[in-house]
Amino acid sequence: MRVHSLTVEQALASLNSSSTGLPAAEAARRLGEFGPNLLEEVEQRHLLLRFAQEFTHFFAIVLWIAAGLSFVAEHFDPGQGMARLGLAIVGVIVINGVFSFWQEYKAERAVAALRRLLPHRVKTLRAGEISGILASELVPGDIVLLEEGDFVPADCRLIEIAGLRVNLSTVTGESLARARTLEPSAEESPLQAKNIVLAGTSVVSGQARGVVYATGMRTEFGRIAHLTQTAGEASSPLQREIARLSRIVAGLATGIGVLLFLVGQAIGLPTWENLLFAIGIIVANVPEGLLPTVTLSLAMATQRMARRNALVRHLPAVETLGSTTVICSDKTGTLTQNRMSVQRLWIGGRMLSCGELARQAPALLEHRALFVNTALCHDLKEVDEQGRQGLRGDPMEIALAAVGRQLAGDLAGCRRVAEIAFDTDRKRMSVICDTPQGRMLYCKGAPETVLAGCSCVHSEAGVVPLDTAARSRLLAAQDEMAGQGLRVLAFAHRAVDQQGPPGDERQMVLAGLIGLEDPPRPEVPPAIARCREAGIRTIMVTGDHPRTGLAIARQIGLISGEAPTVISGEQLRLMSPTQLQLALDAPEILFARVAAEQKMRIVEALQNKGEIVAVTGDGVNDAPALKAADIGIAMGIGGTDVAKEAADLILLDDNFASIVAAIEEGRAVFENIRKFLTYILSSNIPELVPYLAFVLFRIPLPLTIIQILAVDLGTDMLPALALGAEKPDPAVMRRPPRRRGERLLSWGLLARAYLFLGIIEATAAMLAFFFVLDAGGWQHGQTLDRLDPLYLQATSACLATIVVMQMMNLYLCRHPRRSILSYGLGGNRYLLLGIAAEVAVILFILYTPPGNWLFGTAAIGSSSWLLAAGCAILMCALEELRKAWLRHGQRS
């Protein structure tokens, strides 16, 4: 029998389960029999294929060609060392490919590990006890508890419902939420059965309990091919920018090499010597360490963000965060502490503080209906924690229920029989209860929506009609509480006619108003100030009363003007898209009483104005706005599964200050990549100039190709990675956001790397080369054999000088404007490790027999080191003068 055609009792019996759930031992047995509740992942590209791709990208192809030419040259002109050069280039390709693959693999694993910080958990009933377990541990027969915002973790037959509506779009394609029932269904397919909820769908509103009848690949979700998981994430804009840069640089290097080869042929250079020259030009201009450095920088950024309570779900979010211009933030729980406490009550026509409420408790018995309402009208769960009974759920409802239980008296005769669930359109919820006074409906919600269903009100004179005067007094009380930053709720009730419709929220008696305080988080005002300083606009978008939102906004420094623009949901509904875009020009603006679809309108209007928008959300109805935003940010603690799935970033502490920290890290990523780009490109000029001098001035080649590779992948790699791990510069949040479409490789960066730092390094390297030659008695025009000790020492001095200059350059590249004296040598331990590795490599190359044989070097004397150190100090002084000139121009 199909489970949806059975009654509730028959369905439970068919699965050998009961309304109290499975015993733990039976659940464990079934887990072993049926396996975990997981979908089989689509097989990703094999590791070997992904590994092979690291050797076929554009950079690698250019180097393969260079290696091939070297072997060809060795074949036609043996004994010139070209075979060793070819092997060295192949070694570079292998080292670079292995390193890139390993870094990408580690980054992938790191992101996967971060995602596991938020495993999908579900509430189940086992042996009569409610507990939270991993969704993967569900088995057929388990009783699952569902509520608004939850994903359905397995195919379930419903056994209890309260106002349940489910979004089936992931399975059936239907865009509208559908109500569910408990009655047996005659439908052939469970896809059409109204007493079934399917894995992968989501609860839009209400609550339910269901018995699991299918898990894992046995679910409808597992059977539908188009719901299989994707095989990987798309490359981010930054990665595409790096790929574009790589193609430009490698193409330029190849073009220059070919052009100069033709020039060499035209002026009569020997063919193989000319080919050596062309290969050297290509190798000198290809920044082989660029791609792995970018990958590592992004991976380390995600790790740093996680430590600052921001979990990145999609790698593109790292860079997009850095260009965010507007944050649309919720109020409750994000800007505030989400620790509700009752502060004020308007009851019987009087305004009471919380302290007065406690003192006058005996006199408030005539208003018992209000406190019965707060004690019963909620979605809280009774839990037993360490032997103590308590409530778990929304902090606002916990605060109200605590007051209700304290003042309502004996509730033994009160029992809930039905519920009309809260939703964002109605902005209220109701419960129907059997009480000693008969069946009652208790309603709570936003004052304007509850008030619309009331005809009477409790006053000092008893229950009186809700006339214009009474309505005015009530609205004045609401404004007074809202003006103090309190969240205001109205409470009403009515007797339920056993024969009439039980859920009729009309002709109710207004019992009173309650104002709850949710204090701002202490770290939010400084975070708001940092956003303002960083050129980021923060807009509060709240479902609360406008005056409540405005009061909180003033407390946190979000609004300071006398006449800010406050737009309610009703006003927003009447605005055209053009009017909304114009309204957003207001210097200070706040949105209150907005619905979920209106939140998405705000996001789209800001994007139409050219803004990069980050938006926060926690509810199922926030998902469209989270998806529409450039950066969707979900709450890790209070957020629903649907909101988290739609988001790019998850706040592990639900704190606005963590958004600002994440933006800071996002900006740092872009800055760090520019830093190591400057560092890597600077060494291209001292690698290129020796080849130009070799051809133009007919001198011995000052730097061999193998020595260029020693710089690019031997000494420069680790220091460049260290720059990618730099912490955010304190000033990064004092600059405006990066412009949309701003290129990573700017003309200013190129000018600094190639025309300033690179020229200085090249001059120093050539000076060191000629210093050794001159000391050895060399005369211009004199040829030197490639194994001549003087030639080996001269090229070694040239190489050592480039390395020493790059050691100094490492610290100069930490900031494009600030003096090296302002940040010193500390703050990044990886820099010191990079320098240590650089020293170790150059000493191995110059002072060990294997290093001498492989790289064609010889030991150099102290005078060469002193010359290199002096040139490095001079470069530091010149760069400090350049930075001082820039800072002076910025101030003036």
Automatic annotation (TrEMBL):
Keywords: ATP-binding, Cell membrane, Hydrolase, Magnesium, Membrane, Nucleotide-binding, Phosphoprotein, Translocase, Transmembrane, Transmembrane helix. Residues 2-75 form the Cation-transporting P-type ATPase N-terminal domain. GO terms for molecular function: ATP binding; ATP hydrolysis activity; ATPase-coupled monoatomic cation transmembrane transporter activity; P-type ion transporter activity. The chain crosses the membrane at residues 55-73, 85-102, 248-269, 275-299, 744-770, 790-810, 830-847, 853-878. SMART domains: Cation_ATPase_N. Pfam families: Cation_ATPase, Cation_ATPase_C, Cation_ATPase_N, E1-E2_ATPase, Hydrolase_3. It is found in: Cell membrane. It is a multi-pass membrane protein. Its EC number is 3.6.3.8. GO terms for cellular component: plasma membrane. GO terms for biological process: proton transmembrane transport. Belongs to the cation transport ATPase (P-type) (TC 3.A.3) family. Type IIA subfamily. This is Calcium-transporting ATPase. It comes from Candidatus Accumulibacter adjunctus.
